[in-house]
């Protein structure tokens, strides 16, 4: 049966750093008709930091997770994913891998408390030191297999995503290569219209031509390959967003980092809802979404909007 449910990321409903609480965000999600939410770890962590009566970080996070689940249940909202776990997939040193798996186990516990079915991980990103990671698919697959087996113990699916500025893994094809090596039924894709469209076709700082001259041809070829390669059952969930052109000088951006990759600047500050006319999206995200739906995908579709507006302190 073809079933689609629509969610939104909690950090797309206002930044915690701007004073927007997780309870306010859940209430907003319910009032605008969303079926569920992705729980961004930064929102969970911000809520946990208000629980000063508990001494340990782990206890504060567990208590915050329990409270978030209670609030979501009262609003008839599903909590669909915890994200984004990172700084893991390409690690070379055994001790670094083990240290991150300890943190991953805590995340799995938090998912269990919140009745969340999806543990989301992104490929290694800036500002992680490249000397700590490898591009070797066999090593990455071995690490991801360990994570997948850990998640299995908690009944979780692992959604593996390639942000368009990933250090080594930044396309869906890169992720598919790892998934084929991992070969676990609970480890699959997190596909994001922004990352696919921006990486293949976008030019993030080009106001006059935000899609590269050969961008649409490249995108059509990539989407044709996607349909031929990926079984829809391998897609854990789909994220939707578009973007406007980014400012390379980051004027007016709340969190400036002139050393970050261009796609990261665009993602942090310029991601908007698909077809959002007020802002004028620039990326060919609709063909990406259409292709994935035409493949027969059914499941959660989540909006991920990361824009400077999220730092507005107003509640509405």
From TrEMBL:
Top-rank taxon, per record: Eukaryota
Ranges for domain Xylose isomerase-like TIM barrel: 26-307
Stored InterPro entries: IolE/XylAMocC-like (IPR050312), Xyl_isomerase-like_sf (IPR036237), Xyl_isomerase-like_TIM-brl (IPR013022)
Gene3D superfamilies named among the record's database cross-references: Divalent-metal-dependent TIM barrel enzymes
Protein name as catalogued: 3-dehydroshikimate dehydratase
Phylogenetic lineage: Eukaryota, Fungi, Dikarya, Ascomycota, Pezizomycotina
């Amino acid at each position: 049966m073809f079933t689609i449910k629509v969610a939104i990321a909690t950090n797309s409903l206002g930044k915690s750093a701007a004073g927007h609480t997780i309870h306010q965000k859940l209430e907003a999600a319910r009032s605008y008709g969303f079926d569920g939410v992705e729980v961004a770890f930064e929102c969970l962590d911000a809520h946990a930091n208000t629980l000063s009566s508990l001494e340990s970080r782990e206890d504060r996070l567990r208590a915050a997770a329990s409270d978030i689940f209670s609030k979501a249940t009262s609003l008839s909202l599903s909590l669909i994913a915890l994200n984004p776990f990172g700084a893991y997939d390409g690690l070379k040193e055994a001790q670094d891998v083990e240290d991150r798996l300890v943190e991953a186990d805590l995340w799995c516990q938090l998912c269990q408390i919140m009745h969340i079915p999806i543990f989301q991980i992104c490929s290694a990103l800036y500002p992680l030191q490249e000397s700590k990671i490898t591009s070797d698919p066999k090593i990455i697959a071995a690490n991801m297999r360990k994570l997948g087996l850990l998640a299995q113990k908690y009944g979780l699916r692992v959604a593996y995503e390639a942000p368009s500025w990933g250090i080594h893994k930044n396309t869906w094809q890169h992720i598919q290569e790892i998934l084929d090596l991992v070969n676990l039924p609970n480890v699959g894709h997190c596909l994001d219209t922004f990352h696919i469209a921006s990486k293949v076709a976008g030019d993030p700082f080009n106001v006059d031509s935000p899609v590269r001259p050969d961008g649409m041809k490249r995108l059509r070829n990539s989407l044709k390959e996607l349909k031929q390669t990926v079984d829809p059952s391998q897609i854990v969930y789909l994220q939707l967003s578009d973007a406007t052109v980014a400012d390379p000088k980051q004027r007016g951006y709340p969190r400036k980092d002139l050393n970050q990759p261009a796609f990261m600047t665009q993602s942090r500050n310029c991601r908007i809802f698909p077809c959002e006319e007020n802002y004028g999206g620039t990326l060919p995200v609709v063909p990406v979404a259409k292709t994935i739906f035409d493949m027969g995908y059914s499941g959660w579709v989540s909006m991920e909007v990361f824009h400077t507006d999220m730092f507005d302190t107003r509640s509405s």
